[in-house]
Design brief:
Order of helices and strands: HEEEEHHEEEHEHH
CATH topology: Transcription Regulator spoIIAA
Number of helices: 6
Shape: globular
Strand content: 5-15%
Distance between the termini: 38 Å
Number of domains: 1
Largest sheet: 3 strands, antiparallel
CATH architecture: 2-Layer Sandwich
Helix content: 25-40%
Length: 175
């Protein structure tokens, strides 16, 4: 009996989730649109917020203090929402802040940095808006997807329905 208990304790301690709280999101945790209004838990949700596009980049470079400083400042100003980018697409695979360096190839350090930002926001009572791409060249944008499409033999536009256009969808559909 003692061996069985010890085995269970050892296996539990070796579990990848050992000691980590498990987040359980419910529908009430998400802001929703109701006509032209936003709601949270069925009640109107009014907010002010800040744009801090660089938070994942800061965390990927090891500057997690910047994340805390921005979140603390936002909260002290009464803000409820921070918009920060959840992408950085570039062929520069050596840049620790690049999240995707070719279609379907991801940088673990940048993904962990984004995880860090997302995990810290609730500590400050903040919600995040996480754009997955932009329309400018900064941090890759749609033009990077067009370049990757051209490199793969496409026409360099995103007008088609080929797999290059939907490269981002593969990320969202992965378990």
């Amino acid at each position: 009996m003692i061996r069985r208990v010890l085995l269970v304790l050892i296996l539990a301690a070796c579990s990848p989730d050992a000691g980590l709280p498990q987040a359980q999101a419910t529908a009430a945790d998400f802001v929703r649109r109701d006509g032209s209004n936003l709601t949270l838990g069925g009640r109107p949700f009014w907010w002010t917020g800040a744009n801090a596009y660089f938070l994942m980049e800061s965390a990927a470079r090891g500057d997690t203090a910047a994340v805390h400083e921005v979140f603390a400042s936002a909260r002290s100003l009464g803000m409820k929402v921070v918009r920060t980018w959840a992408f950085h697409d570039s062929p520069d695979s050596l840049d620790p802040t690049v999240m995707q360096f070719r279609p379907g190839a991801f940088n673990e350090r940048a993904l962990r940095a984004l995880d860090y930002v997302v995990a810290r926001a609730p500590d400050y009572g903040l919600r995040l808006i996480l754009p997955l791409v932009n329309s400018w060249d900064d941090y890759g944008g749609m033009n990077q997807y067009a370049r990757w499409r051209a490199e793969a033999g496409g026409d360099g536009t995103l007008a088609g329905r080929g797999p290059e256009q939907n490269a981002g969808a593969s990320v969202l559909s992965r378990p």
